[in-house]
Amino acid sequence: MVFDLIKGLLGQEEKKEAKPAEAAAEKREEEAVSASGGQPEEGASWLSLDAWVSLEGLKKGLEKTRSRLEGHLKGLFALGQTVDEHLLEEVEAALIEADMGVKPVNRLMEELRRACQSGQIKDAVGLKAYLKTSLKERFKGYKLELNMSPTPPTVIMIAGVNGSGKTTSIAKLGYMFVKEGKRVLLAAGDTYRAAAVEQLEIWAGRVGAQIIKHQTGADPAAVAYDALQAAVARGMDVVIVDTAGRLHTKQNLMNELGKIKKVLSKRIEHAPHEVLLVLDATTGQNAISQAKLFKEAIDITGIFLAKLDGTAKGGVVLGMQDEIKIPVKFVGLGEKAENIQRFDPEGFIDALFD
Ligand SMILES: Nc1nc2c(ncn2[C@@H]2O[C@H](COP(=O)(O)OP(=O)(O)O)[C@@H](O)[C@H]2O)c(=O)[nH]1
Ligand SMILES: [Mg+2]
Description:
By secondary structure, this protein is of the alpha/beta class. The protein has 2 domains: about 20-55 and about 145-354, P-loop containing nucleotide triphosphate hydrolases (Rossmann fold), CATH 3.40.50; about 55-135, Four Helix Bundle (Hemerythrin (Met), subunit A). The protein has 14 helices and 8 strands. Strands 3-2-4-1-5-6-7-8 form an 8-stranded mixed beta sheet, with helices on both faces. The chain is elongated and about 65 Å long. The N and C termini lie far apart (about 60 Å). Bound molecules: guanosine-5'-diphosphate and magnesium ion (MG). Guanosine-5'-diphosphate binds next to helix 8.
């Protein structure tokens, strides 16, 4: 019956010219980079930004990236050091090796050289300060807070390739919301692997969330639909929808994500309120290529960068905003539910360079 309902809904949706959910998502994206300075607009609410950020935790999680940067930069930013070609080359090498990306690094190096020539940068200490400010600058104007629906439930859809860390990141988000006193429902939308449903179920039990699941092989759009029905009936605050990361072809995967998104928006206006793409930080620049592909297929509202702890390629975050114009909203710093942090650009850059 649910299947027929969904088929019916999808049929109607295809005939319509205007797509309210997409228009809303576009609007959200525009708003995200608007000059609102990250302040919640009227009628909307967000989780507090201060919670879920810890500089110590970040420093520990970023140890590998930090030590790679240090390998090049140790001692060079000391007081009294002059800025010479050697120092600039080491900065460049450090950022490339931390996987910031060639283009963003080239742009940044041009900027640094100009600032040296114009006298804005006078010594190594000045160079470091300039570098940090310039990096922080590129995150300004992005809305890093989660977009919470003024009327619950807030619906968050998760996308990403297999193994990127989707299910674990869902557990982390669930843990965070539960800690904040919210009622959380997880939807086991990765119906392709039996283990995927079980894995989510174990996490739901651990973090104190509820779960909606169907059998392996079921239609993920039907799971999503049932989850929203249940969420409304049970008065849940947040629904997080897991999805599969691999189908027979890329086009199949993208079509399926689109279908799930449509079903969500049909059941609850403006849902999903967030579409978070989970990327594996250990893949460095590949994560950026992946983000570009997903962005072409669905409106991504934010990135959850998982596995930052396991990589020296943490610099990928620095080039990410430049390259894909989607804000990183969360980072994963370990395999446990509590190893989640909101992405705080200031803290992140301080943690990398101090
Ligand atoms: N070190 C570390 N491992 C992670 C993190 N996030 C996920 N993982 C691991 O990555 C693997 C794949 O994660 P999973 O959530 O199953 O990915 P999915 O296939 O996208 O759902 C698992 O072994 C997780 O424990 C993280 O932030 N740090
Ligand atoms: Mg999974």
